[in-house]
Amino acid sequence: MSAAMAADVTSPTNALVKRLVKLRERRTREREGVFLVEGARELTRAVQAEWHLDVLATCPELHSPDATEAAGRLHEAARDTRRFGVQAFERASVRQNPDGLMGVVRMRRVALDDLPWPAGACYLVIAGLEKPGNVGALLRTASAAAVEAVFVTHAGTDLGNPNVVRASMGSLFSLPVLTLSDELLRAALEARGVRLVTTTPTARTTYWDADLSGTIAIVVGPEHEGLDAAWRDAADVEVGIPMAGAVDSLNAAASGALVLFEVVRRRRLRSADPPRP
Hints:
The protein is α/β, with parallel strands linked by helices and 277 residues long. The protein has ten helices and twelve strands. It has helices spanning 15-22, 26-32, 40-48, 65-77, 86-92, 132-144, 162-167, 182-191, 229-234, 252-272; strands spanning 6-9, 34-38, 53-58, 80-84, 101-106, 122-127, 150-153, 177-179, 195-199, 205-206, 216-220, 237-240.
């Protein structure tokens, strides 16, 4: 349980405000092992998933109804709580219309051996995506599709980016997310018998027709360059999304969502099938 709320932070040049602003930088986040989480929903999901909330910054004058409701619970969970004035909070915030809650959350590391690796599971691989909004949106989709875990490689490994956190709608905290190299991940998935289903516009098999049974990992890559040759060579199945009109591809988040929910649809249908005599 946290201590009593500390003195107000009113100046935009306060040392804590400067620290929160510095946490916008990846180098600072990695050095300190923490990242900034803003918003009542995102902070609540982090605390519910037992991520460590080091500092809670609260500005009651900016609280939305959800923030007012969440503030007390977050204060109890935080190691330290500071009350901010409007100018100080807005200086630290990365949002246009902040709800008056932000926190410094301790990073959590998950290892490959920490996962249970059940048979028949579905995983998501986000391979080399550079746009944090797409990474966050895919995390949100993965949570909605109940994937077993998400693996993020290469340029997309900055999960503490504020845009990843926001686009994930707090889903970053609700499922295992691992960051590692492409090479190590491919070897780990092969060793555990996970079939690779790669998404590519040039695939001859549509995701409607592909074999998506068993233990699989859906691999989604950058929109323009696509997956590199190493991922495509390792694929057990390559799938494409049929296109009409002048459009030749969807963005990565949309493509990943279509394939993941095709997996969900098929497994739900299979679970509803009556037993055979």
